[in-house]
Amino acid sequence: MSLLWLILGYLAGSCPTGYLAVKILKRQDVRNFGSGNIGATNTGRLLGKKWAIAVAVFDMLKGGIAVLLASFFTDNSLILALTGVFAVLGHNYPIWLGWRGGKGVATTFGVFGFFDFFNPLPALIGGIVWYVVLKKTKYVSLASIIALFCSVLLMPLFNMPRPYYVAGLFLAALSTWRHKSNIQRIIEGKEDKVG
Fold first, then answer.
1. What is the CA radius of gyration of the chain?
2. How far apart are CA 136 and CA 177, in angstroms?
3. What is the pLDDT of residues 128-179, one digit of tens each?
4. Which of 39, 103, 157, 173 has its CA 20 to 30 A from that of 167?
5. Which backbone phi and psi does 117 adopt, to 5 degrees?
6. 86 in a domain, yes or no?
7. Tens digits of per-residue pLDDT, 165-193?
């Protein structure tokens, strides 16, 4: 039964929202543009801000709902944490697209928000941090990395189970690694700013 939730988490996360939106509306492959990712930021480059927001929301929900559904059947925090991890892995490495997916920020935030359904404050505060950093720096990548780690560091303060904290650290580190080219461009002063 535990393995089933990991598989379902992966399949939920692997739904390529941005890819499908661009394919249906533009008849193009979003991976051939911008960063080459299927996430909200790159989708927005082709479809505009409204579609970027829609894709981000859906990407959050697909990770969060996977964890929420699992929580109806088990209260084992390790299984729930791994379900969330596999949802993000599904987004980042979808089997349907030759393992070429996104960077997992929105899906990770969705997972964080539903790790403890009655205690979403770490994820909500992280979202506020993301907005503030984005407004100050105009770098989506930098705002995302800082916000994810902020959310994780808040988890112990809100007495969230240890598996959530460990999974959160892994997912924040994974997102940072997925943003390594963005980090390099920021250092070189070549990273695109929003707005």
1. 16
2. 23
3. 999 999 999 999 999 999 999 999 999 999 999 999 999 999 999 999 999 9
4. 39
5. -55, -30
6. yes
7. 999 999 999 999 999 998 999 999 888 88
Q: Is residue 62 part of a domain?
A: yes
DSSP 27: S
Residue 156 covered by a domain? yes
Position 34 scores a pLDDT of: 78
Q: How many residues does the chain have?
A: 195
Axis crossing angle, helix 17-26 with helix 40-47, rounded to the nearest 10: 10
Q: Where are the alpha helices (DSSP H) in the chain?
A: 2-13, 17-26, 40-47, 49-71, 77-92, 105-115, 121-137, 140-154, 162-178, 180-188
Phi/psi at 15 (5° precision): -65, 110
The amino acid occupying position 151 is S
- Residue 68 · residue 46 · CB < 8 Å: no
Q: Which residue has the tokens 């394919």?
A: 23
The residue among 7, 20, 12 whose CA lies nearest residue 107 is: 12
Mean pLDDT of 24-42: 86
Question: What residues make up the domain containing 131?
Answer: 2-188
Q: Is position 155 within any domain?
A: yes
Please name the residues in contact with 187: beta carbons below 8 A apart, sequence gap of 6 or more.
none
Number of domains in the chain: 1
120: tokens are 């979403």
* Euclidean distance between CA atoms 162 and 87, whole angstroms: 19
